[in-house]
# Entry
Amino acid sequence: DKRIPVKRMDYYEAAGNMHMHTPYSDGEKYHAAIADDAIKAGLDFVIVTDHNVLVKGLDGYYENGDGRVLLFTGEEVHNVRRRPQASHFLAYGVDQELADLASEPQQLIDKTNAAGGFGFLAHPHEQDLPIVNEPNLGWHDWDIDGFTGLEIWNYMSSMKNRLADALNSLRWQNRLTGNLAALRIALNPEKTITGPEPETLALWDDLLSQGKRIVAIGNSDAHGTPMSMGPLHREIYPYEFLFRAVNTHIMTPEPFTGEAEHDKQLILKAIGQGHAWVGYDMPGPTRGFKFSGKGKSKGIMGDSIVMDAGATLQVLAPGRANIRLIRHGEVVAQAQNETTLTHMSIDPGAYRVECRINYMGQERGWIFSNPIYLL
# Structure
């Protein structure tokens, strides 16, 4: 069964999505229906993150005739009085309401950490999209520290940015042309989205170069949004569709047992440690990816490794890809159209992996690993 976590290097792999909404905030489906869609998409876990409300009492395994998925809740916190309502914060593993701290981002981060949770800056870089009255909802309040990581790839935010790119290039044309261009892009996102925002990857690399440990995750931001344009009415970006796109894959030292609280803690620990990668599973499954290292000690992505004369870093992709090993924004090794890459590193720092593949006639981001930290 593809939903049973697969053991890799004494670790077990599981795939999940950690950013979505229900009618408790601005989504269209409730938890049980979301779980059904996650099972159809082959996910092992989902974390529901409604805006400014922590919905309790719905955590647990959900099952149907096709399998089961572990669902639990987090929270997406933002200040509703802020204009624009930007700087969204994803909080996981905190069993208390955090919305009262939305106006104080540093206090919000500190409270999340004090509660033993993990906090991520959601869709950090966005553009305005006036055609649907959507302002830039990226992260604006940068005088902060101590957050766990960044949501480096948010599929819905990427779609918004690609729409903005297209409409900005059509400013000299008429409104009808712009609307038709936007409609084509909206109905065919897989033709337009190519990877995380370059600004977000650059920010991540900059923070890593400063010696910070910053965990990367990737998500859907699913809402099940209905769309109407003249006689056309449809749900764009259904939950199941998005659950087959950008996900976070984790590595745990033991398999899921089927006991919800135990397995929830395995997931949260893996997320907090960065034992994870972001996978664009639509072009091809990213299950089976491995990034490991060995020096005086050994480990996987998210771990620190003490070097000997150096350390050997090894990448195994689940299919042929253009593989790049990156240290602080600089490519230090690469392999074209290969499944493996091995590199001896002698410099300390944070090393991460990008794998890119051709899909629908264009090279696109496929896998973005968390770093291995060489000491």
